[in-house]
Structures are given as C-alpha cells and as structure tokens.
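Memo to structure team: turn this sequence into structure tokens by end of day. - J.P.
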Amino acid sequence: TYHQNKIIMKKLLYVVLGLIALFFIVAAIAPKDYSVVRSVEIDQPNEVVFEYIKSLKNQDNFSTWMTMDPDMKKTYTGQDGTVGFTSRWESTNEDVGVGEQEITNIIEGERIDFELRFEKPWESTSPAWMSTESLDSTKTKVVWAFEGHMPFPMNMMLLFYNMDEMLGKDLQEGLNNLKEIL
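Reply from structure team:
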C-alpha cells in the first residue's frame, strides 16, 4: 500500500512534469507575431481620403474601438496630422482600456504609421498603419493594418485565438464606417 502509493505519486509527478515540458516546447515553437490587414474602396479622390485619415482625431468618427465607450477620457498632444502627434484614451471598459497612439511616420498621400501603446488591461506596444492608393481619379483603396507580438510563453494564446478574425472584424467595421463618412 505504501509502496503502491509511492509508485502512483511518482507516475503522477512524471505526467505533470511531462505536461509542463510539453507546454514549454509548444510555446517555444508557436508563432509570436501576428498581422491583421483589411481594406476598402472609397468613392473619393486619394487626396480627400488621405487628408481625412491623416488626422488621428478623425478616428473617433470611424474606429470601432472609439465608439465602445462614449465616456472615455481623451487627450491630445502635438499638432494633429503630423509626426509626433499623440492621442491618449482612458476607459474603464476592458475592451478599450488605457493607452495612446502616436503618429510615427507620414508619406504624404500614401501612408501614415502609428505606434499603439497599450497600458491596460495589459501592456504592449504594436505598430499599425493606414495607406491609400488611387485606383482612378475618383476611387481610393484604403488599407488598415495592425501588427502584434506575444512574448514567450504568452504566445501560446495565438494557438487558441484567431487574432486575424478577432481584430479583423473591428478593422473592417472601422473601414466600412470610414467609407460611409466619406
């Protein structure tokens, strides 16, 4: 009985250690980066569309996340539509959280790059960008992209959550709102 219990405990310990080892092995080979890209065509000239999306304050009008909490606190630093402009938000809604977005690069008429810095519900820094491409004199393709990195061992979540599906829905909804506005 004592001997049998000792054998059972030893086997149980091996199983637990094996599961822990398996977790770390899978986490070591699981993807750590993800990218979400969506686009829409808007019946406006490229110049009109680019000037609108260059202003971070205008995201309040079309971004899905900005409409999730009408009571969120927003502050702005710098001159909107220029490199260094920062838009900060604070919300008690966990889907929105606390963070800021800064314009890091602008290629006039083509692309605007942002750095998203999330503070709550978790800390992370992610690049994002929007680009415009003139399809003809009255039609513009807009692309909105978000990239993320999950450090080891948190990257295991990428095996269970489809970030493209989860974030892509919100990006596409925001682009559809943008199309309707313009």
